[in-house]
Amino acid sequence: MVIGLIVSGGKGLRMGTEVPKQFLPVHGVPILVRTLMAFDEVDSLEALVLVLGRDFIEYFNGLGYTPAKPLYIVEAGEERFSSVRNGLEKAYELDPESAVLIHDGVRPLVSKKIIEDGIAYTRKYGAAACSVALKDTVKSVGKDGFSTGTLERNNYRLIQTPQCFFTKEILSGHKRIQEIDNQVTDDTAVYEAFYGSVYLYEGSYENLKVTTPEDLLLAEAILANREIESCK
Ligand SMILES: Nc1ccn([C@@H]2O[C@H](COP(=O)(O)OP(=O)(O)OP(=O)(O)O)[C@@H](O)[C@H]2O)c(=O)n1
Ligand SMILES: C[C@](O)(CO)[C@H](O)COP(=O)(O)O
Q: Where are the residues marked Transition state stabilizer as a site (predicted)?
């Protein structure tokens, strides 16, 4: 079984809106609904696990969106890390042999190809995450704000989601990593700590994470452009 795990239990503090950003409309449809619709379109995914803050489960149900695939709602934790862990427990309960695609609920522009590639590369390499090349120069910086050097940017990638694994491995990693490191910002770091490298395949600059207000403007523009292109 292949399961999509959508984490959407954050508070959206950097966006600063009253309603958490995952529920804001982008081009007329709530961000989280767009994300779920993208996953619902992928035939080889058999179930969706959605992680939501306890206070927003009813709110989500009130949106009136029901995917065609079975959807299991799980309560969020305080941090993204614990929300993922709660979702992984559910995925393992559904099928201990499953593969899981962990995705931010606030990356609504993810394409079908990116999701399908994640599944294919996980089957081939055991773990995969989509990524993009850096466009700007990258510098290290000291506490005083002065630069301390320039990094070779071709040696780096920006990591997006989905990040894809076999559920039992990444769940076991999650259980063990808290003992050694609670600074992890994503699940590839959990995998690397115990199992080795993750295959980094091509994502897309359009697969942006809606984090701050200008990301919303960009997402609006991309969707408006997609609409124009589809009418041509
Ligand atoms: N306790 C948390 C925190 C985050 N997330 C999810 O993880 C994804 C990426 O997190 P981020 O963009 O940091 O979202 P927020 O935590 O909501 O934002 P902020 O840090 O600005 O408060 C989002 O889909 C968010 O809903 C989650 O499921 N549970
Ligand atoms: C998982 C992630 O989206 C990969 O780029 C990112 O690390 C999430 O970071 P955040 O600080 O929780 O938004």
A: 14, 21
